[in-house]
Amino acid sequence: MDGPSPKRRSTINQPVQLVVSSSAASHGNDKLQQQCDGASAGTSSTRTRAMPAVEHKLNVSEEEVPEHIRRIANEQGECPKTKKQTIEQFRSYILERNECQPHRNDDQYLEKFLRARYWKIENSYRLLCSYYKFREHNKGYYEKVRPLDLRHLGDSDILTVTPYRDQHGHRILIYRFGIWRPNRVTVDDIFRATIVLQELGSLEPISQIMGGVGIFDLKDLGLEHILHLSPSVAQKMIALLVTSMPIRTSALHIVNQNWVFNAGFKMFKPFLNSAMRERLYIHGSDMRSLHKHIAPEHLPKRYGGLHEDYSYTLWLDMLKDQCTGSSVQKDMEQLGFIFD
């Protein structure tokens, strides 16, 4: 069974710049465009190309959204001419229904719920209510949680989000449950770490528009792991990835599963709606199957890609070093997180 290995993390030989971007950056746009268009290059030629340095960076400015992503936003129902009017209608709808009381109702905040549901007001409202219902029932995942105290999740390499995007503009959330040690890392800590990543991602306009994708790496998954994955845990995981967060999960990819997966999947399947089942892909150890969805140049080497592994800890370093006093810290503190 592969355990956490400091030696593996030390193979990151490219410099990583920890930056929070809050203004236009044409270089960043060009870089993202190259990443999103990278799948057009042949796999054989990209495998010999050295990967550029990767920045752990939040793209929190609307001005950083590339033109081709804006066109996709328009196709999803986001009309620049009527955007403010739609947001105002959404705000009025929330007040009229009065089924949940969001802690914010400014344009920027409401916009991410509309984007997550293709600018359909009723669907966006249901998402908003589901989000606050989840928060109300799981206060321990938000209130007085110190994100920087979750460093042991990064040290264990159980989960992370790629600092780069795939050819479609998605960030990739990766879980490696087979190396999870339940006696060292609790299920609740996994949820807390996931929520931190989801909330940070929901601050990025590009991610609001494109959503993200998930990879569940089940290599070495054992019965000791399944015993900690109760139906209530399964329901919470689906809520985070599918029904209750203002950021879409465009696809879930299962890789390296074994016979234990069949037992565990029985708990998750009832909570998957028909749309999500259509976006669930089970690849086994066939990385070529995974590459039909995510090009190798946007994947870690362990999945037949070109990138090194990037630890969750690097996102925490970014929060510590670059987010102090920023709008990102303010937004997170309003949710109950503590930075000190």
Automatic annotation (TrEMBL):
Record's GO cellular component, any one? membrane
Q: Where is this region: Disordered?
A: 1-49
| CDD domains membership | SEC14
Top-rank taxon, per record: Eukaryota
Give GO MF terms, alphabetically: phosphatidylinositol bisphosphate binding
Compositionally biased spans, kind Basic residues: 1-10
> Which residue intervals are annotated with compositional bias (Polar residues) in the record?
11-48
Query: Residues in domain CRAL-TRIO?
Result: 146-311
User: Do you know which PANTHER family this protein is assigned to?
Assistant: ALPHA-TOCOPHEROL TRANSFER PROTEIN-RELATED, SD01558P
**Entry protein name:** GL21211
Question: Which organism encodes this protein?
Answer: Drosophila persimilis (Fruit fly)
